[in-house]
Amino acid sequence: YRSKARGRGTSTIFTNEMVESHKRKLSIANSIDQALANNEFTLYYQPKVARDGELVGFEALMRWQHPDFGLVMPGEFIPIAEQSGKISSLTRWAIERACIDLPLLQSVFFNKFRVAINLSGHDLRHSGMFDLIHQIFTQQQVNPEYIEFEVTESAYLENFAFANKFFRRLSNMGCAISLDDFGTGYSSLSYLTQITIDTLKIDRQFVRELNTSHRSRLVTGSIIDLAKRLSLTVCAEGIEELSQWDYLLNHGCDHVQGYLFSQPLPLEDVALLPARFEFGPDHVSRLSGQ
Ligand code: C2E
Ligand code: MG
Ligand code: MG
Ligand code: MG
Q: EAL domain location, by residue (predicted)?
């Protein structure tokens, strides 16, 4: 029948792939605790850049140096950690690590900027999370004003009641809150009148389409307008080309992140970054002309 018609080889390869991917998932889920104990996780830092090119902060992004699989990216292991109930230990680790790295990052640039840490939806429902964060700040003697938390639009909205309360408490303590991947999650904007955030992060998808789609340019411009009207800071992600930054600058975008400036870097390489990014006399004059 079908399987015969398709041929034995084809169906065997397909099955093997599925088995391998399932094995890898299981192996990743089962080795998270061990990996934490063995120091296999690290934080990479990607600079956030202001309108004048000045470095204004960093986003901490997790990486896993796995003994068998090599460098494993968060896009793969974060969802597995969420499904297997391990995410809060990873979050705890990331917050601790970022708090330890913060004074180093600040001393490199003689600057008191913020470090942003990503939270997952599960963290918002975890009843002890606020106390845990507070405890880490106290232990590491970190001023909460130097810490920003990023949460995706969908994670915020799926946990709306918890999230509002949780972020209000963090905000009262001095932390900044960013809504990540904005524009990809929900169609209704009514929630924007009720949430506690400081920054709206425009998803990379919009930035990617700036070059090719007039509509994407209009939508992106409108998102920036909307954020400004709500007195929020706007940060755009995934800037890879100067033309994209130009468009965003002309429409009032405050902060940008992307490979144009730098990929996320291990802590030891952060010192190689310039304190201010410049892209030739053209760019400088365009900025001062505004
Ligand atoms: P995100 O928070 O939206 O982070 C932005 C992602 O875009 C990062 O991928 C970053 O490396 C990538 N990126 C930045 N600039 C560019 C660019 O110009 N071009 C392209 N193509 N990509 C760019 P990364 O590090 O693989 O992280 C993926 C996602 O994993 C993050 O998306 C975040 O949702 C999640 N994540 C990372 N670290 C953590 C963490 O410590 N905790 C939690 N809960 N989630 C994390
Ligand atoms: Mg983020
Ligand atoms: Mg994002
Ligand atoms: Mg994203």
A: 25-278
Which residue's alpha carbon is at the smallest distance from atom 41 of ligand 1? 62
pLDDT tens digit sequence for 115-137: 999 999 999 998 899 999 999 99
Q: How far apart are CA 223 and CA 84, in angstroms?
A: 35
Ligand 3 center from residue 25 Cα (angstroms):
24
Q: By C-alpha distance, which of 20, 102, 119 is closest to 57?
A: 102
User: Measured between alpha carbons, how far is 5 from 22 in angstroms, rounded to an integer?
Assistant: 26
- Give the span between the Cα atoms of 237 and 204, in whole angstroms: 5
pLDDT tens digits along 184-233: 876 677 888 888 899 999 999 999 999 999 999 999 999 999 999 999 99
List Cβ neighbours of 192 (8 Å cut-off, separation of 6 or more).
Answer: 226, 230
Cα 278 to Cα 290: distance, rounded to the nearest angstrom: 16
DSSP 93-126: HHHHHHHHHHHHHHHHHT---EEEEE--HHHHH-
Q: Which one, of 183, 151, 153, lies nearest residue 166 by Cα?
A: 151
> 3-state DSSP call for residue 2?
helix
Q: Tell me which residue of 174, 175, 64 sits closest to 117, measured CA to CA.
A: 175
Nearest-CA residue for ligand 1 atom 19 is 238
Instruction: Tell me how far the alpha carbon of residue 281 lies from the centroid of ligand 3, in angstroms.
Output: 31
ipTM over 0.95: yes
